[in-house]
Design goal:
It contains two helices and twelve strands, in the order βαβββββαββββββ. The protein has 222 residues and is mainly β.
Length: 222
């Protein structure tokens, strides 16, 4: 889980990522918007690097500005140059990248490359990278982990979704709770819940221009 450098291409993507998500988010059990198509804007996030340099890994924060009370959602995504075998149900959609060609976008909680690097981030060995700047770390992302290092030998991610978000069993008898609907604080750094064995937190730009922050994921005993 050592990190390599991912090259960020500033080019066209058709359809855009938020256009893909506008059709996909309402199909999720944790989506809190109405029946209409959400009006999404990209508010923030960060990336992780795939050591093999093959898979794009992004944790995107999007705001649904079309609801009376704007909802903020966390969407971990992976971008691949070919379909991920056995992950048909996790496909968000396909898009045409101006440099890389056709790309398959997946709900990253089902992608073993993202999960391995995410656990590396929580464990302190995979740095969070800036969302749109090549080879730049995102120092706003915080993490913690109490316990033994994760043993990923033979590990296959099997996440489940419900109204509370995504629950990902992890090696060692713990569960990573991915908070899909983010509850933000505007002034103080967010803190993980009591009893947490690990967490990831960061900030993003709120609709009113203020900097919002939240815990994105919490590691708990199963």
């Amino acid at each position: 889980m050592t990190s390599g450098m991912a090259l960020i291409h500033h080019t066209t993507v058709t359809p855009s990522k938020v256009e893909l998500l506008a059709g996909w988010l309402p199909t999720r059990p944790w989506y809190q918007g109405g029946r209409g198509t959400p009006v999404l804007e990209k508010s923030g996030g960060f990336r992780l690097d795939d050591p093999a340099g093959e898979v794009g890994i992004e944790f995107m924060v999007v705001t649904d500005t079309g609801s009376p009370e704007p909802g903020v959602y966390l969407v971990p995504l992976t971008y691949r140059g070919a379909p991920l075998e056995g992950a048909e149900d996790a496909l968000v959609g396909t898009m045409q990248h101006g440099v890389l060609g056709k790309r398959w976008a997946y709900d990253g909680c089902h992608d073993p490359v993202l999960v391995a690097e995410l656990l590396g981030l929580i464990g302190g060995i995979a740095p969070a990278m800036a969302q749109s700047i090549t080879d730049a770390r995102d120092h706003e992302v915080t993490r913690s982990h109490t316990g033994s290092p994760f043993d990923l030998d033979g590990f296959t991610p099997r996440p489940t979704d419900d109204q509370d978000g995504t629950h990902l069993p992890t090696p060692g008898g713990t569960v990573l709770h991915i908070h899909r609907v983010l509850e933000s604080v505007a002034e103080h750094p967010p803190l993980p819940r009591q009893g947490a064995l690990g967490h990831v937190a960061t900030g993003w730009q709120g609709p009113d221009g203020t900097r919002q922050r939240a815990v994105l994921m919490t590691l708990l005993d199963a």
